[in-house]
Design goal:
313 residues; alpha+beta; phage-related protein like fold; six-stranded mixed sheet; four-stranded mixed sheet
Length: 313
């Protein structure tokens, strides 16, 4: 038989059609990203050399009361700056050799099944890499996402702002210890330190071991969960107004408290898990396409986030 003359068209059309599922399967399977998406904290940006996030770090000293003909204070104000985050890029390649093409050419169903398996492999690999990197530090501007290890820290240069000279940009960081002896006290203090008025942390991320430390302190009737988060497939518990979840890539002995008002996933609008056409390399008897993503995690107020470190049993 001659085989399927529209092999390339079937591949490209199917891959492009699958794009919305890629986003759901990659970002909604990661506790941090799913939380950001659920809070409407994915922001699209078109181009730009960097991601620029405006910051307020001081109050306006001219604000105050006055009477009748008092002279009003018109002193120029400082206290407005911006954080600068570099774009990060991720890719996964999908390759189909001519041998695979010919083995599956007689049936469109075979073609689709072949492609489905390769998409799933690329999708799972991207999911794992981005989940892992979301917790890493990026102090030396590597190619990886600028993760929570640097975003939620009391030292280091983050967003091109050095915390050694701009202490207002430091996150709340507390060295903890035995969870049985002081864990709940440390959590309470950190939660309050990250709170202001009616704005509180709404996500606590930690490792499975630390999650179980907290779970063991609760009576069965106290183990309240966020039903929406449960519906998304995530095990979770409630602490005050925050949802607590665990992630296998969270650093050992660390617990993050995050506020969704001040953390977002910024994505370049033209590179949001796009799929490229299949092309043939000059030196291979195969066809290759890529899934491409460009973006970064960005915080607008480090003081509203915090972490406990050194947690033990």
């Amino acid at each position: 038989m001659a085989g399927n003359a529209n092999f390339d068209a079937i591949l490209s059309t199917t891959l492009n059609t699958y794009r919305p599922k890629l986003e759901d399967n990659i970002f909604r399977a990661n506790a941090l990203f799913a939380w950001l998406m659920g809070k409407g904290r994915k922001r699209m940006q078109t181009g730009g050399v960097q991601i620029i996030v405006p910051l307020l770090y001081a109050t306006n000293s001219t604000a105050g009361s006055y009477s009748a003909y008092d002279i009003l204070d018109t002193t120029p104000q400082e206290g407005i700056s911006s954080a600068e985050y570099n774009w990060k890029q991720y890719a996964a390649s999908i390759s189909i050799s001519r041998k695979e093409e010919r083995q599956n050419a007689e049936s469109e169903t075979r073609i689709l099944n072949l492609l489905k398996g390769k998409i799933m492999q690329a999708e799972e690999s991207l999911k794992e890499k981005m989940d892992q990197h979301a917790f890493l530090s990026d102090a030396v501007d590597t190619k990886n996402l600028t993760g929570l290890a640097l975003a939620v820290d009391s030292t280091g240069t983050y967003g091109n702002i050095n915390r050694a000279t701009d202490s207002w940009w430091a996150a709340n960081e507390t060295a903890s210890g035995s969870f049985a002896a002081q864990g709940l006290d440390d959590m309470r203090t950190l939660y309050n330190n990250c709170s202001k008025g009616n704005v509180h942390p709404d996500l606590i991320l930690t490792g499975q071991t630390e999650f179980e430390y907290y779970e063991s302190t609760l009576q069965p009737q106290q183990r309240f969960t966020d039903t929406k988060t449960v519906d998304g497939g995530f095990q979770n518990l409630k602490y005050k107004d925050a949802t607590m979840m665990f992630d296998l890539y969270c650093q050992s002995g660390v617990m993050y408290m995050l506020n969704s008002n001040f953390l977002e996933l910024v994505v370049e609008s033209g590179t949001d898990l796009i799929t490229t056409p299949f092309v043939k390399p000059e030196n291979q008897d195969a066809k290759v396409a890529q899934i491409l993503w460009m973006g970064n995690l960005a915080s607008s107020n480090s003081d509203r986030h915090g972490k406990l470190t050194g947690i033990t049993a």
